[in-house]
Q: What sequence folds into this?
């Protein structure tokens, strides 16, 4: 059974005296399976945060379904099994990190001794144990993000929902968060993480969903989503002007460009590669590097965003 | 300890902590103390009336400052949490929204009780200083002010559950003023406005809204007897019944607040 099921979710915000409308979700659907790290990707304003807020029962959908553990998402009993890190989190800034974790633990109904023990471990783990007794007011953005991560994990939830967990973190912090999420996966925790940092998604996620303009346009294994087709092959050679002119004559669909490292030849597909390499060697020029280019998550993302913008 | 109570008290404790670390309240309390000190001067002007002036002005000042603080605390129920985004981390916890509302109320009531106790203590000292006695009557009047504040907080929270802080403050202040002027309004409805439709509006409002004049009775007529803090004041039984009155009304206001809050989108 899927841990999270979102089916045809719709949400329109109606604001102010003039009932100004802004459509956030136009029928988004996706599912998160047990034990996986699911990346929820999309450009700014795509509806990621809105979807997560509906799942957390903070706002109500206009239509469609949002289920966690098979139950409607507003249900407090299912929320006991979920940890949530809001987008750019901000906590009661008069509290210290210790007090924050204690309070959040109490809201989960955890007894005082367990709260204290877990709090200590978690603050150590997210790397702010040294500031545990300082009020959150004195925290930097990245430290707050870490405190937020700790409070999301205080109840040892089966499902962790993170809205942009990497924002505000330095490279070391990002790395630590990635490691923590990988740890969670080994423990069997399901993770739903929302991000637009594609590099993180590639290294972290088992499956991704790409939301654009309030619709999930694609979801699945990263390897499936990215077409395996090779888009072009770049060959870097060291050739004299003469040799280059010769190659240009024989291969008129290859583009040549001079770079600092040598001449870069772009072949439109992988078929002519062998012939081209043979010709280079025949001409006496040196082959430095051959790079096939597949579709990247970035190009998929941009393609989806553009198609979404056009439709 | 039940889990529900654990959650409510976690919210209450946090609310109390937050408000008690707010400097604005300290300033307001100082203002109140200043006002009491000023009434020493006024007392001197009216020969032999020092104690009387001190009690009257002190109670009035405490009441006014109290209402301002209660209003401020109550209308901030949500707006501040939404503005600071703190609520997004709290409400996704397995905590029904009504427990959040009740926890907030208890926390704010705790703050208010502490403030009123502090101001009462100062007033009592001033009364002793000008040569009066801290009579039981004075304590009764102070207790009434405290109960009044609980009710103001609950009403402010009711309005804040569905409207902006500014509107909530205005509505709450309106309700408080109508309640305070209930005797005058009643007389107006029965007299000048007896033949106009406004009469029904006034009578309807007075029937629904709490009667705040009952919490500040010195110098007024209660149950057709004139009461005064300086001679014959309302008995403890009356004070107790006003606690019941405040709690009952607060319960109603909070029930509505919780129901409205439940339906609200927290965007
Ligand atoms: N409270 C709100 N009132 C009105 N419109 C809103 C509100 N919240 C979101 N929206 C609109 O809904 C759409 C989706 O917003 P959402 O915050 O879900 O985007 P997002 O995918 O999280 O973007 P980002 O990557 O910038 O965080 C946006 O067009 C936004 O303008
Ligand atoms: Mg967002």
A:
């Amino acid at each position: 059974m899927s841990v999270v099921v979102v089916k045809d979710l719709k949400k329109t915000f109606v604001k102010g005296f003039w009932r100004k409308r802004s459509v956030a979700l136009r029928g988004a659907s996706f599912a998160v399976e047990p034990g996986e790290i699911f990346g929820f990707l999309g450009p700014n304003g795509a509806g990621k945060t809105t979807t997560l807020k509906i799942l957390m029962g903070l706002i109500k959908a206009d239509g469609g379904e949002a289920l966690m553990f098979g139950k409607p998402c507003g249900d407090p009993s299912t929320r006991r099994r979920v940890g949530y890190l809001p987008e750019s989190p901000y906590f009661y800034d008069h509290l210290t990190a210790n007090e924050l974790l204690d309070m959040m633990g109490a809201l989960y109904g955890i007894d005082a001794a367990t709260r204290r023990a877990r709090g200590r471990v978690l603050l150590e783990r997210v790397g702010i144990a040294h500031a545990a007794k300082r009020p959150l007011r004195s925290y930097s953005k990245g430290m707050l993000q870490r405190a937020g991560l700790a409070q999301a994990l205080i109840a040892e939830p089966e499902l962790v929902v993170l809205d942009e967990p990497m924002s505000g973190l330095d490279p070391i912090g990002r790395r630590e968060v990635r490691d923590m999420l990988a740890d969670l996966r080994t423990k069997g925790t399901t993770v739903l993480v929302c991000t637009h940092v594609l590099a993180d998604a590639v290294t972290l996620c088992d499956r991704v969903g790409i939301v654009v303009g309030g619709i999930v346009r694609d979801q699945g294994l990263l390897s499936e989503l990215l077409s395996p087709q090779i888009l072009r092959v770049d060959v870097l050679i060291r050739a004299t002007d003469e040799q280059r002119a010769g190659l240009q004559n024989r291969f008129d669909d290859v583009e040549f460009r001079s770079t600092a490292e040598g001449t870069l030849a772009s072949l439109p597909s992988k078929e002519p590669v062998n012939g081209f390499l043979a010709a280079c060697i025949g001409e006496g020029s040196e082959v430095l590097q051959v790079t096939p280019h597949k579709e990247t998550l970035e190009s998929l993302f941009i393609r989806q965003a553009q198609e979404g913008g056009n439709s | 300890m039940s889990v529900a109570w654990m959650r409510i008290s976690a919210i209450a404790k946090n609310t109390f902590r937050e408000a008690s670390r707010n400097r604005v309240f300290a300033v307001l309390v100082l203002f109140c103390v200043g006002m009491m000190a000023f009434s020493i001067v006024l007392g001197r002007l009216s020969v032999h009336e020092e104690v009387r002036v001190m009690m009257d002005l002190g109670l009035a000042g405490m009441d006014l400052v109290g209402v301002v603080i209660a209003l401020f605390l109550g209308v901030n129920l949500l707006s501040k949490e939404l503005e600071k985004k703190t609520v997004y981390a709290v409400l996704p916890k397995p905590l029904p929204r009504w427990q959040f509302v009740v926890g907030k109320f208890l926390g704010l009531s705790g703050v208010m009780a502490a403030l009123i106790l502090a101001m009462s203590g100062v007033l009592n000292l001033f009364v002793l200083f000008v040569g009066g006695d801290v009579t039981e009557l004075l304590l009764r009047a102070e207790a009434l002010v405290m109960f009044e504040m609980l009710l103001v907080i609950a009403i402010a929270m009711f309005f804040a559950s569905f409207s902006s802080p500014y509107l909530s403050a205005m509505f709450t202040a309106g309700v408080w003023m109508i309640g305070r002027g209930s005797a005058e309004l009643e007389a107006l409805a029965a007299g000048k406005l007896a033949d106009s439709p406004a009469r029904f509006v006034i009578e309807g409002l007075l029937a629904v809204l709490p009667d705040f004049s009952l919490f500040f009775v010195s110098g007024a007529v209660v149950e057709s007897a004139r009461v005064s803090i300086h001679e014959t004041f309302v008995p403890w039984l009356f004070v107790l019944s006003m606690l019941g009155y405040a709690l009952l009304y607060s319960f109603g206001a909070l029930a509505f607040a919780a129901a409205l809050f439940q339906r609200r989108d927290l965007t």
In short: Chain A has a mean pLDDT of 89. Chain A has three domains: 1-81+158-172+187-226+297-311, 89-156, 230-294.
